[in-house]
Specification:
With 401 residues, the chain is an alpha+beta fold. It has 11 helices and 21 strands. Bound molecules: flavin-adenine dinucleotide (FAD). Flavin-adenine dinucleotide (FAD) binds next to strand 4, helix 3 and strand 11.
Length: 401
């Protein structure tokens, strides 16, 4: 029997078939074969989502063999990249072409199409999520047909870029890049109140800023990344200190090319809930989660991450046309995490937050409609691209059918 589980291990599936196509034609055949067999079909990237958005008992597609940076357009800088390419395999080839991704998240283990499909983001209001970098995408539809969607196609790209894999199997993406750049990473410990007070100013003055609140110490670590022309220095191995310690978040000062500086190591398995709130509501929400954790969950040691992100245009984007703050809570997956995650989800939702699609949430269809103003518009596109629901699963069907 086939089996699949996500990175955290909280989602397991037993697909009838696992297909690992090694060419575009093989992918198209695998999709057509699945549809003919009456299978539903999902794609797994790196399985770093905490929600059951890859799970299927039909056909699971693994695109690890459809990987690599195919080309970089010397005029526009746009890079054509196979969907299964891991983010950590993109930095070097882009760098050789003098280019870089404008922003990245905490880690670089995800597959490009997985990061795009869930709106994976870093921090910094000037630079959006992976979904926002998509100039065009090639997808394989439910009969194995091939469609290219680009920015000139009306609202199609706004539906397809952040679609949790519901419009088809993404095979290739054209991604916007910018000239290669170096970053200077600094992190500073400080009291919670001081960090709250200083963050808006620091965040406005630096290319990227974020902070971590460490519950057992009631301390924060404020991290900034700024542009620099200085020679690379610092860095080296990035040991992973235990959660709840300040050393885990205070990194040695470092200067290097962006794709080397952005990612951090995350080896201890956890689950995470992240909600996005309008920028001005972020500080109050941060105080609310801190209060709840101190009163109801005093034993949770894992830090809470606070980032700021730009408004975006993808229909399902949690930051739809609005600058936002994102707040993420974490819990080791091998200890009981449900009550803390559910309480965090309920709190953020009561404050009007929108969930990250790859992270823990308990949204039903009504909540999706209340929180995501273009959810129904997205469903119209989904029905057009996949009328028989081949790309749905038991988790997505009630929300988006
Ligand atoms: C340690 C860790 C750190 C993280 N850090 C961040 C962070 O800093 N910022 C952030 O925003 N998120 C973060 N996340 C969440 C993570 O980036 C997202 O959940 C992302 O989707 C994972 O990428 P993946 O390749 O593992 O995708 P998967 O989880 O494998 O898939 C995600 C979705 O994309 C679909 N999909 C994948 N490939 C294709 C394809 N070719 N065609 C169609 N659909 C496809 C899948 O079916 C699924 O619906 C983190 C997660 C972990 C575990």
């Amino acid at each position: 029997m086939n089996s699949w589980s996500n990175w955290a291990g909280n989602v397991v599936a037993t697909p009838a078939t696992i297909a690992v196509p090694d060419s575009l034609d093989a992918l198209r055949r695998a999709v057509a074969t699945a549809a003919e067999a009456g299978h539903r079909l999902r794609v797994a990237g790196s399985g770093h989502s905490f929600m059951p958005i890859c799970a299927t008992d039909g056909t699971l597609i693994d695109l690890e063999r459809l990987a690599g940076v195919e080309s970089v357009d010397p005029d526009t800088g746009d890079a054509t990249i196979w969907a299964g390419t891991k983010i950590h395999a993109i930095g070097e080839p882009l760098f050789r072409a003098g280019r870089a991704l404008a922003n990245q998240g905490d880690i670089d283990r995800q597959a490009l199409a997985g990061a795009v499909s869930t709106g994976t983001h870093g921090t910094g209001r000037g630079f959006g999520s992976f979904a926002s970098m998509v100039r065009s995408m090639e997808i394989v539809g439910p009969t194995g047909d091939l469609v290219t969607i680009d920015a000139g196609d009306g609202d199609d790209l706004r539906a397809a870029s952040l679609s949790i894999g519901m419009l088809g199997v993404v095979s290739r993406l054209r991604i916007a890049t910018i000239p290669a750049f170096k970053l200077h990473e600094r992190s500073t410990p400080m009291e919670f109140d001081a960090c709250q007070e200083i963050y808006p100013e620091v965040e406005s003055a630096n290319r990227h800023a974020e902070f971590w609140w460490i519950p057992p110490l009631d301390m924060c670590v404020l991290k900034t990344l700024t542009l620099t022309d200085e020679e690379p220095r610092g860095g080296g191995p990035d040991p992973e200190f235990p959660p709840g310690t300040i050393e885990r978040y205070i990194k040695p000062e470092k200067i290097d090319w962006s794709y080397i500086v952005y990612p951090t190591a995350r080896n201890q398995r956890f689950v995470e809930c992240e909600y996005t709130l309008p920028l001005e509501d972020g500080p109050a929400a941060m105080r609310a989660i801190r209060e709840m954790m101190r009163s109801d969950f005093p034993n949770v040691t894992w830090a809470v991450e606070y980032r700021t992100v730009p408004g975006e245009t993808a229909m399902l984007s949690p930051t739809l046309r609005q600058e936002c703050a994102t707040i993420s809570v974490h819990h080791p997956v091998d200890e009981a995490w449900e009550s803390f995650m559910m309480a965090s989800d309920a709190l953020f939702r009561s404050l009007g937050g929108r969930s990250h699609w790859g992270k823990m949430h308990w949204l039903g269809r009504e909540e999706v409609d209340a929180l995501y103003p273009e959810a129904e518009a997205f469903r119209t596109f989904r029905r057009r691209y996949d009328p028989d629901g081949v790309f749905l699963n038991d988790h997505l069907e009630p929300l988006f059918s």
